[in-house]
Design brief:
Elements lengths: L1 H9 L6 H15 L9 H19 L30 H12 L21 H13 L10 H18 L6 E5 L2 H19 L4 H4 L9 E4 L4 H9 L8 E3 L9 H8 L7 E5 L11 H10 L3 E5 L24 E5 L11 E5 L2 H8 L29 H34 L5 E2 L7 E5 L3 H14 L5 E5 L2 E7 L7 H17 L1
Helix pairs in contact: 2-3, 3-4, 5-13, 6-13, 7-9, 7-12, 10-11, 13-15, 14-15
Amino acid sequence: MLGLKRNILQSPGALSQQTINSALALWNNELKKDKKVSLNDDDRSAMLIAAREAVAYRADVTATSVKPEMRPADFASEFDTLLPQKGASASSVIDDLIAIAGKGLHGHTSPRFFGYVCGGSMPVGAAADFLVTSWGQNVASSWESPAAAVIEQTVCQWCLELLGLPSESGVGIVSGATVANTQAIIAARDTLLQRQGWDVFENGLLGAPDVPVLIGDAAHSAPLAGVRYAGLGLGRATRLATDDQGRILIDALRAALEPCKNPPLVILQAGQINTGAFDPFQEAIPIIHDAGGWVHVDGAFGLWAHAVPSLRDRLAGVDGADSWAVDLHKWLNAPYDAGLCIVRERAALVSSMSVRGAYLPDLGETWEPSDSTLELSRRARGVPSYAIIKHLGADGIRKMIAHHCALATYLADRLRGEPGIEIMNDVMLNQVAIACETDEKTTRVLERIQERARVYPSHGVWQGRQIIRVSVINHATDHEDIDLLFDEIRDANLAV
């Protein structure tokens, strides 16, 4: 019995209907010994069908078109829009999902997907995610979900060590960088106001002292959203001038700090979305701290470079900040969704996030997941990252990041030799910004590449020009994939 279960789990891609039926028959015989049935035949069949399809999909991901066959408008006739009045079998529902949804799946897990900054959901992480869903743990409380809570606490400690950040920092596992930035900005807001004698918890923000916000004019939208969600007002934020790579100018920072009457929140960036550039942390952070300010770093993908000794000098001083936001579903290639909110002073994070109801278990010595996030009820989204780190090890993660950066440089070097193609950034990380002779041509070249769907870069705007943006971040991407991307860009440039 147990041996058959192991065979099914170890070789799900080889599952046949006969194998499934055999497994169900054996399980039924076992169940006769126990009247309490947790799973019926239909439930088991649905789960096994889903597992088989998941393996088949991932095994075929490089052989299929990177773009979806159908876009949202095309799906209107594919899905029943009427509320079903009667149910259907679990296995038939899964069969229908597989048949219909496949036409609208984007190749985000493909090593030839170079759009936006999307990690490829590493298989070992996806496998761990199967378990997370099946376990069905609500990780609000370590007492009620001890295994998940301790696993996630381990992930947090491992990531602090990997990223070279203070080991005593508070960490919340969240859905991604937008929430991570928001939480850190809320913690900064509360701390800066507390230092001025204002209690946000009791008094709210109405009538509170001013919290000046300074942020680069090439910042990503995620921390801007955080400023808005924290009630600090985007229109009140001071935008700092940046250089041609998106790095803030120190003179602009000094000039903006000078009129600040209250301690400011300054948001810096590790990895500009178009260029991969880093703000000058080593010079900027001491200046901000001298002004009594809080430094937050949006490091959604770029902060991972601090884990690699050969890249660490590019963001020297970043560990001196007060808080950081980083994604796990980007460069760690964890399944969506997962990110980290990291705050140097753990008490600042916990005091801003935790609201304990009388019905919750008492606090103990164990780290409490819900004390570091806005969410109370959530899935154990940190478990897949535990599996990935355990699988790759620190050396494997560092090697993967360095490999991606080398591939980005390799692509840029090849494209520089092509007439009519310009590399718009200094390639210092994994991002390559590409422009053709005119904006119109850049747009047409990208459209042709995406339509052919052998590879998939995405669009962007940089320095007032339309660009083709390439992000090399999938765990499986290699030189062959980059050579194919080069061929597609070159051929499209010549064709249009």
